[in-house]
Amino acid sequence: MKEISEAFARAHSSYASGHFEEAFALYEHLSALDPNNFMLLYEMGLVLVRLHKFEQAEAFFVRAAMDSPNCYRMSVSGRCLYADDELTDTELCVYPNLSEMKNVDEYLEAGYMCYANYYRLKQCTGCTRCLPFRVDVKNFRWSKSALRTVKKNSDLRVVVHDGGGISAEKVQLYVSYMRERHNETESSDPERALAQRHYGFSNTIEMNYYLNEKLIAVGLCVEGNNSIYSGFFYHDPAIAKRRPGFYSMYMEIAFAHQKGITWYYPGWYVAGISNMEYKRELSPAQIYVNNEWVAFESK
User: Fold this and answer.
1) Is residue 137 within 8 Å of 282, Cβ to Cβ?
2) Of the candidates 101, 131, 161, which is a domain's last residue?
3) Are 90 and 202 part of one and the same domain?
4) How far apart are CA 74 and CA 90, in angstroms?
5) What is the pLDDT of residues 180-235, one digit of tens each?
6) Looking at residue 192, which CATH number applies to its domain?
7) CB distance 134 to 108 below 8 Å
8) For residue 229, which of 142, 90, 133 has the smallest C-alpha distance?
9) Is residue 297 domain-resident?
10) 3 state DSSP class of 119
11) Burial of 36 by CB count in 10 Å (0-12 exposed, 13-18 middle, 19+ buried)?
């Protein structure tokens, strides 16, 4: 146990220092000592992504999902991003194995969201501002604004992949998006962050958006049998006037309708937070309150 702990610490230190080949060798040694540890396989995949060995990395992410015999749970707390005062945000995080990934319908129905490679459920004390939100796909109302947005982007080509995967082109697109939209720089380890988004769930659907032959946006969704979760979307900052975030949602809803999916989950609704209130434009919809789904009134 001490040998494993020390080797893991050395691997983490090597990665943090930019010695990625050394980090991979140490993780490989650890994996030989503990072959059923899917988190080590996942970490090895992340190191390979950092080395831009994308095809090799994908194989490790697949193994990590398939080889995991367990489903890990942990509680995480931190400062709330949506409150003016010093409220504590508490979440239950569930790191699923392959069978639990396939139960995405049940998790979403119970108020969980999907993030990176885990489910997250709000368990904040004395606060219920973050409300899980879902849209009735079959009865979705295409507003005039929605139709205008779709028309404005009619020159785009949308290609849907089961899984997909990252590339140097997507990393650069992600870096540009995060720098422009969220003021983040390349020092935030974009390859690792993007890999966690793309390879977190084995049932990820990737929607690529092209203008002519140029990739300008990527959307990631987690698909269940009766639901689809809108996980992450990044785009070329130059297309901001096209309302790409809204357009991607409309395309995801259209995709869900084509597949016969009932519910579209775009994340939490938080009243008073501008980048969360856009969901008012989506109806009919429901919010999860006191462990049940109730109609959302947008007015």
Assistant:
1) no
2) 131
3) no
4) 11
5) 876 665 457 889 889 989 998 989 999 999 999 999 999 999 999 999 999 999 99
6) 3.40.630.30
7) yes
8) 133
9) no
10) strand
11) exposed
Query: What residues contact residue 114 under an 8 Å CB cut-off, 6+ apart?
Result: 104, 107, 108, 120, 200, 201, 222, 229, 231
CA max distance for the chain:
63
Q: Is there a single domain that holds both residue 112 and residue 139?
A: no
Per-residue pLDDT tens over the stretch 238-248: 999 999 999 99
Same domain, yes or no: 229 and 164? yes
Shared domain for 91 and 106, answered yes or no, is yes
Alpha-carbon distance values, 281 to 73, 86, 183, 276 (Å): 34, 30, 27, 11
The residue from 67, 82, 101 where one domain ends is 67
How far apart are alpha carbons 185 and 206 in whole angstroms? 24
pTM: 0.91
Span 33-83, pLDDT tens digits: 887 778 888 899 999 999 999 989 989 988 887 767 778 889 999 888 777
Q: How many domains does the chain have?
A: 3
98, part of any domain: yes
φ, ψ for residue 66 (rounded to 5)? -80, -35
Whether residue 293 lies inside any domain: the answer is: no
User: Do 251 and 108 lie in a common domain?
Assistant: no
Contact at 8 Å (CB) between 195 and 57? yes
What residue type is assigned to position 8 of the chain?
F
Give the side-chain half-sphere CA count within 13 A for 189: 15
> What three-state secondary structure class fits 218?
strand
Domain that holds residue 121: 73-131
Angle 54-67/38-50 helices, nearest 10 degrees?
170
What CATH number is given to the structural domain containing 22?
1.25.40.10
The contacts of residue 237 (CB under 8 Å, 6+ apart) are 176, 177, 180, 181
